[in-house]
Design goal:
Blueprint (H helix, E strand, L loop, with lengths): L6 E7 L2 H17 L3 E7 L1 H5 L3 E5 L8 H6 L1 H18 L3 E5 L2 H13 L4 E4 L12 H7 L2 E4 L4 H7 L4 E3 L14 H7 L8 E5 L4 H21 L4 E5 L13 E4 L4 H6 L2 E5 L2 H8 L4 E5 L3 H10 L7 H6 L6 E3 L5 H8 L7 H15 L6 H10 L3
Parallel strand pairs: 1-2, 1-4, 2-3, 4-5, 5-6, 6-7, 8-9, 8-11, 9-10, 11-12, 12-13
Helix pairs in contact: 1-16, 4-5, 5-6, 9-14
């Protein structure tokens, strides 16, 4: 490592999951290097690790083709501000975390400025818009992967990628015991618990929540003693909540630790659920323009990262028009009991977990980056 009095890092995360990974990475890097200063875009978790936040994720988390178009002026402004900062401050390295719509463009700008780039949690170009892999090949000098099959895929495309393991293999233990959790939400041990994870962005909630509510009402008509709890992401609003649905606002992970089965929006939470061993049904709805675009561009057979890692259907998926209350109900009810479907899914989870590597992903990522400074 270069002997400098002060190291400057610019780090970019554009959504909740990236903020979590960014905060853990920063924490790990500071364990190894004391004289390091972080500036960038992120959320409250990164701010708590003393990252100087320029743009908050609340203003960056955008999904969907139409939604992106609507926010283009703001995103162009953020890009301009970011590039100017890089030009004026010349950091020792730029660290990009997922968020490919913005970060791949920023990688090219940084390359033109002669700033070395680490990409931690790589864009899923193997799923759609494969042509973007050229940006990683030409503008990024360090690619750190957390998905088991990515290393081989990227290297076949001329991109050296190092698999460091998946951080979810070392999820922190629950902050509450099961008794504390049940007491907090007035739950009982004798009735099944259905967990709802409708998404972490308001656009997702707006499309998913009405379907979830209808499904839950059907489920309750079949299982009268069902208990239902929502793992609510920060900053979202859940409208028209039936009185019997409980809300966990502080730590959505607890609802996966102590639920019996879950309805989960496709995304990062599906792998977290698999690691925590809660059977699930995966679903997702895009806006119609985004769906039309995605259907043409997608190149993978599954939506859920769990099924993609396993390369087979471990968890049922209901995407777009297939995401109906009836489909969700019929798929999740067997998972609430000790059925063959539940047992088969849990065995599939074991197969997935074995591919995720050993604990210590953030430390390995931190050491790999520090070795480039």
């Amino acid at each position: 490592m270069a002997k400098k009095k002060h190291l400057k890092i610019f780090i970019v995360a554009g959504e909740e999951s990236g903020d979590l990974h960014g905060s853990k990475l920063v924490h790990a890097m500071k364990k190894h290097v004391a004289n390091i200063q972080f500036t960038g875009h992120g959320g409250n978790r990164m701010a708590n690790e003393n990252v100087q936040i320029i743009e908050h994720i609340d203003d960056l988390a955008i999904i969907g083709f139409v939604e992106v178009i609507k926010h283009l002026p703001h995103m162009f402004k953020v890009m301009g501000t970011t590039v100017n900062w890089l030009r004026e401050n010349n950091p020792d390295r730029l660290i990009l975390i997922d968020y490919p719509g913005f970060n791949l463009r920023l990688a090219r700008e940084a390359f033109q400025l002669g700033i070395p780039v680490t990409y931690f949690i790589l864009p899923q170009v193997w799923a759609w818009k494969e042509g973007r892999v050229s940006i990683l090949r030409d503008s990024v000098d360090q690619c750190l992967s957390i998905i088991p099959f990515e290393q081989e895929w990227f290297e076949n495309k001329g991109v050296k990628a190092d698999f460091i393991g998946h951080p979810f293999i070392e999820l922190e233990p629950p902050k509450q015991t099961i008794d504390q959790f049940f007491s907090t939400h007035n739950l009982n041990h004798d009735s099944p618990i259905l967990t709802l994870l409708p998404g972490s962005r308001q656009q997702e909630i707006n499309r998913h929540w009405p379907v979830y509510i209808k499904a839950v009402k059907i489920i309750k008509s079949n299982i009268s003693n069902i208990q239902v709890i929502v793992g609510k992401a920060p900053g979202i609003t859940l409208p028209n909540i039936p009185d019997f649905i409980k809300i966990e606002e502080n730590d959505p992970q607890l609802t996966m630790c102590y639920g019996d089965a879950a309805l989960v929006a496709s995304g990062t939470a599906t792998l977290e659920a698999a690691v925590l061993d809660i059977p699930m049904v995966v679903s997702y709805r895009f806006s119609l323009p985004t769906w039309s675009f995605a259907k043409k561009m997608a190149t993978v057979p599954y939506a859920s990262i769990v099924n993609l890692i396993a390369n087979e259907i471990i968890v049922p998926e209901f995407i777009q028009s297939e995401m109906t209350p009836e489909n969700l109900t019929n798929a999740v009810i067997p998972l609430l009991n000790k059925t063959s479907e539940r047992k088969k899914m849990l065995l599939g989870y074991e197969k997935v977990r074995r591919t995720l590597g050993m604990p210590g992903a953030y430390d390995r990522a931190a050491e790999a980056i520090i070795n480039r400074l």
